[in-house]
Design brief:
With 212 residues, the chain is α+β, with helices and mostly antiparallel strands. The protein is built from 9 helices and 6 strands, in the order H-E-H-E-H-E-E-E-E-H-H-H-H-H-H. The radius of gyration is 18 Å and the shape is globular.
Length: 212
């Protein structure tokens, strides 16, 4: 998440009807993710998921990704790119302001919001996990386990295998790159990004009823 921007959103919308739970997916733990929460001075709930459990359960492949969950624990909107502000970087274009407007409408109107999806609509929007993606998930988590045990050679081999099984998962690549130098990680990201061609980096937001 763009943490400082979401802190501003939380200050505006937070209260009894709204809570942000930000979960950093990082095997590096507090040492890797803590500084970003500190810099954002976040007052909403901030967690660090060293086992990537959240991205596994919700089938997330990139960040920032948001899921709306109501007070009954039901998913109201499944995975979608979640910036708090408009983003434009090369071919990456995200209407974050429209997303926040839709979120504010849901906070105000709850299940009556025009952006709250029915259970049927939620199911239709959930992308099924392929056999290769399921294998990649298990392989990646096994790599994370070996990384925790200090067996970096085996961890790197498993992470590489997971990336080959599901190359569209930027989370797998990004975690691997996070243990390399900043320059190497940046170069790897740019090479993979440029190889996308016309394929989107983020799936387009489907907020047809969003205010202009």
């Amino acid at each position: 998440m763009d943490l400082p921007g979401w802190q501003a959103v939380y200050e505006k919308l937070g209260g009894e009807n709204f809570e942000i739970i930000s979960v950093a997916q990082d095997t590096g733990g507090e040492a890797a993710a803590g500084e970003f929460y500190d810099a954002a001075d976040a007052t909403y709930t901030t967690l660090i998921d060293v086992h990537h459990t959240v991205s596994s359960l919700y089938n997330m492949t990139n960040v920032p990704t948001g899921v709306w969950i109501d007070e009954a624990g039901m998913i109201v909107r499944p995975n979608e790119v979640a910036y708090s502000e408009n983003v434009e970087f090369g071919t990456i274009k995200v209407n974050g302001e429209a997303y926040v407007s839709a979120l504010a409408d849901w906070v105000e109107h709850g299940g009556e919001s025009r952006f709250a999806l029915s259970p049927t609509e939620v199911v239709l929007r959930v992308r099924p996990r392929s056999g290769d993606a399921a294998a990649a998930d298990a392989t990646f988590k096994l790599g994370a386990y070996f990384h925790e045990q200090g067996d970096l050679e085996r961890a790197n081999a498993l992470w590489h295998q997971a990336q080959e099984l599901q190359p569209e998962s930027w989370n797998y690549h990004r975690q691997d790159w996070s243990f390399r130098s900043r320059d190497e990680a940046s170069q790897n990201w740019r090479q993979k990004f440029e190889a996308l061609g016309d394929e989107p980096y983020y799936a387009p937001l489907a907020l047809e009823d969003a205010p202009p």
